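Still learning folds. Look over my entry:

…
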Amino acid sequence: MSLEIKNIMHKPPVYIDENSTIYEGTKKMSDENKGSLLIGNNDKLTGIVTERDIIRAIASGKDLNTKIIEIATRENLITINEEDNIVKAAVLMSKHNIRHLIVKSGDKTSGMLSTRDLMREKNTLKELSKVKSSDWYGSD
């Protein structure tokens, strides 16, 4: 049994405008109970910001009124297709040391997948146990 990403995503992605501040981003994350936000909108994705990005920014002395786009990941965004399976998602997260994947349906962003989503699925560990250890660290 191979579970597709689209079957375990629970909520649509949450976006924030790139001109928003770090403070506004933390408030939105808290209000929405999210660990990441997409920068832009469904038609134009310009980046992703995570809890880790915000912690690093604050630790380095960034002001909370700094534009959130300044601390976001804007290049080499890691994505997965909603038709892909949970094993591919877990391997990508492990290889890139990330907790959130941007889920695509064609050219459109259809969701976000977190490690929490993977662990909520009772069959995830069963599927992951079938993966060869070389697959975790090989090429994409």
About this structure: DSSP finds six helices and six strands in the chain. The beta strands are 15-16, 36-40, 45-50, 79-81, 100-105, 108-114. The mean pLDDT is 86. Residues 5-130 form a domain with the CBS-domain fold (CATH 3.10.580.10).
